């Protein structure tokens, strides 16, 4: 299921390594398309730098995953930072995720601070990070939620259609008719928060915006229960208090994808 | 780059100069004794030239003085905080560690890469393999977060022992830091059937003046501990006050008895030590976290409700100054 569309440029001297391949695979599973600038293709770190800049100009990626070290020669050890500075100078709003072994060092702080000064969306992540973590970080860095959000492997929230779709074992998609209108808006709010950052609690007042009446809190409770009943019926598994939409005491609700 | 072997002239201890001077005088005396023997001046000639004796003694005493001066000076420098060479030593250690971390990280990346490659192949081919294979792959993958935190702990430890390491503050968005931690541990939590939730008050938390790396490191240690020793639900909350902000990491585990709580922040202490069992961690995480909190003018504390009491849980509270810049 690949509901996301977007374009990520990966610049890494070890682009053919299993680590980078796993990251690309994960991003593609989420619906991103990936383009790789590698040492194998371009030879030297300098060539990689120019190729990456050219690629950014031409394909206008939504984000860049960039290694700090672009080669084994001493001069290439921080070549990725040179490229980062050029990207930040040319396109200060382009999200860059530095995918590096140097995610904790002094260099990171220096670059992070200089990047912060221009408010560039630059973050660092360890090369040992799981592909899931890289994908989550890219989601948050890129920022804009997609029109369709996959919640686990069976649920797709389609904002365009204003509907929640369930994927059945035969591959067919069917809309959950009981989750429309305000229920859909509440679910969309929860799904977008979860998409940006899993586990993020959406405060009550944010969800109560979709409701009217004197006791919007009670009304929200009822709507949440209705959504869970409808989703449980569609998924053919009853959803309990700690499933799918979970209440966090005195705070709000959060989305929890069904365990698979 | 600073090196251990390079020493400026002014960095030599003065007793060493005195020792060298005595040694040189001794050598001169020995040479003189060869050309101008003075034994004949005595009424009863000595079997050995007295100046040679004096010269040998001078060389030995002088060299001993010089060596002693260097040794005591080295110890003094290591144990004090104000000397340039201690900083040089720490920076060198940090640089060497980064090289070591990179070299150690390479085989780790290869192992993890192969592990993920196997997962990819299994997913692509749809091959039905034993659950044991998946469990083994999970087990390999689970080592990565521990390795990352261990490396980060060592690096921070070195940094903390650098006397000149400045505690600088700059604009930081705490909720972005918390998001990064959640992204990092969500997969691991799901594998373990656990769950992480987070919220901030106010929701638009804004910026504080702190150190993002330090903040991230402290919260990572707290969440890692909660996943390791806590229950199946972890909640991270960030709340902002007028002068301070706080991050609470709460888990619904069985709680930490009072007699353990008093040791939690002791360097090297682990829960296993209280039970005379083998250590499963370095016992550095909480020590480093509290030291970092103090360095940035804050505090790290713990409260716990111990099972079988209802609502048993443990909360680590990090409090740091909002640190608005001076006008």
Q: What would your notes on this structure say?
A:
- The complex is a heterodimer of chains A (260) and B (327).
- With 260 residues, chain A is α/β, with parallel strands linked by helices.
- In chain A, 42% of the residues lie in helices and 22% in strands.
- In chain A, strands 2-1-3-4-5 form a five-stranded parallel beta sheet, sandwiched between helices. Chain A has a four-stranded antiparallel beta sheet with strand order 6-7-8-9, covered by helices on one side. A three-stranded antiparallel beta sheet of chain A has the order 10-12-11.
- Chain A is elongated and about 65 Å long.
- The mean pLDDT of chain A is 88.
- In chain B, strand 4 and strand 5 (244-251) form a beta hairpin.
- The longest helix of chain B is centred in the first third of the chain and has 42 residues, at 84-125.
- Chain B has nine helices and seven strands.
- Chain B folds into three domains: 8-80; 84-160; 170-321, 2-Layer Sandwich (Heat Shock Protein 90), CATH 3.30.565.10.
- Chain B is 55% helix and 14% strand.
The H-and-E topology of chain B, N to C, reads as: HHHHEHEEHEEHHHEE
Main pleated-sheet profile of chain B: 5 strands, mixed
Helical residues, percent of chain A: 40-55%
Q: Output the structural class of chain A.
A: alpha/beta
Unreliable stretches of chain B (pLDDT < 50, length at least 5) are: 1-10
Task: Tell me which oligomeric state these chains represent.
Answer: heterodimer
Task: Give the name of the CATH superfamily of the largest domain in chain B.
Answer: Histidine kinase-like ATPase, C-terminal domain
- The averaged pLDDT of chain A comes out at 88
Number of discrete helical segments of chain A: 9
What structural class do the secondary elements of chain B suggest?
A: alpha+beta
Number of domains of chain B: 3
- Give the distance, in angstroms, between the N- and C-terminal Cα atoms of chain B: 37 Å
- Report the average pLDDT across residues of chain B: 82
Helical fraction of chain B equals 40-55%
């Amino acid at each position: 299921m690949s509901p996301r569309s977007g374009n990520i440029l990966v610049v890494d001297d070890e682009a053919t390594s299993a680590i980078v391949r796993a990251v690309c695979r994960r991003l593609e599973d989420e619906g991103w398309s990936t383009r790789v600038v590698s040492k194998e293709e371009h030879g030297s770190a300098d060539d990689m730098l120019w190729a990456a800049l050219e690629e950014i100009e031409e394909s206008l990626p939504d984000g860049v995953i960039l290694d700090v070290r672009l080669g084994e020669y001493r001069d290439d050890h921080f070549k990725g930072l040179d490229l980062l500075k050029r990207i930040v100078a040319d396109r200060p709003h382009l999200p860059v995720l530095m995918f590096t072994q140097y995610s904790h060092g002094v260099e990171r702080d220096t670059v992070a601070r200089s990047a912060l000064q221009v408010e560039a969306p630059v973050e660092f992540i360890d090369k040992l990070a799981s592909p899931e973590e890289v994908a989550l970080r890219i989601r948050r860095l890129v920022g804009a939620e997609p029109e369709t959000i996959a919640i686990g492997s069976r649920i797709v929230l389609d904002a365009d259609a204003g509907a929640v779709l369930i994927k059945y074992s035969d591959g067919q998609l069917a809309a959950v008719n009981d989750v429309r209108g305000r229920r859909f808006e509440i679910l969309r709010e929860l799904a977008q928060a979860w998409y940006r950052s899993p586990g993020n609690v959406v405060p009550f007042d944010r969800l109560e915006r979709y409701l009217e009446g004197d006791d919007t809190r009670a009304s929200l409770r009822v709507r949440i229960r209705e959504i869970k009943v409808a989703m449980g019926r569609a998924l053919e598994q009853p959803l309990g208090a700690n499933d799918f939409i979970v209440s966090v005491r005195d705070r709000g609700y959060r989305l929890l994808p069904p365990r698979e | 780059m600073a090196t251990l072997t390079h020493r400026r002239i002014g960095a030599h201890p003065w007793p060493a100069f005195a020792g060298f001077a005595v040694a040189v005088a001794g050598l001169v005396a020995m040479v003189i004794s060869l050309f101008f023997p003075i034994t004949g001046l005595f009424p009863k000639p000595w079997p050995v030239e007295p100046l040679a004796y004096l010269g040998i003694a001078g060389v030995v005493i002088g060299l001993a003085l010089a060596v002693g001066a260097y040794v005591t000076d080295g110890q003094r420098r290591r144990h004090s905080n104000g000397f340039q060479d201690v900083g040089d030593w720490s920076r060198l250690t940090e640089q060497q560690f980064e090289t070591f971390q990179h070299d150690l990280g390479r085989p780790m990346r290869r192992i993890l890469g192969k592990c993920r490659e196997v997962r990819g192949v299994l997913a692509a081919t749809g091959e039905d393999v034993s659950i044991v294979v998946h469990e083994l792959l999970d087990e390999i993958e689970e080592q990565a977060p521990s390795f990352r935190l261990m490396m980060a702990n060592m690096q921070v430890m070195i940094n903390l022992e650098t006397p000149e390491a400045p505690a600088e503050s700059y604009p930081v968005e705490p909720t972005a830091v918390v998001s990064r931690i959640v992204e990092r541990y969500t997969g691991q939590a799901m594998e373990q059937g656990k769950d992480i939730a987070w919220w901030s008050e106010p929701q638009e938390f804004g910026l504080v003046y702190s150190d993002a790396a330090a903040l991230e490191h402290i919260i990572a240690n707290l969440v890692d501990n909660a996943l390791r020793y806590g229950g199946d639900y972890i909640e991270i909350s960030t709340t902002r006050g007028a002068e301070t902000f706080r991050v609470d990491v709460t888990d619904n585990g069985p709680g930490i008895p009072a007699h353990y709580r008093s040791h939690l922040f002791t360097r090297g202490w682990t829960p296993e030590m209280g039970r005379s069992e083998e250590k499963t961690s370095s016992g550095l995480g909480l020590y480093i976290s509290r030291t970092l909190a103090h360095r940035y003018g804050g505090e790290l504390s713990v409260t716990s409700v111990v099972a079988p009491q209802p609502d048993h849980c443990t909360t680590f509270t990090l409090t740091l100054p909002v640190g608005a810049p001076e006008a």
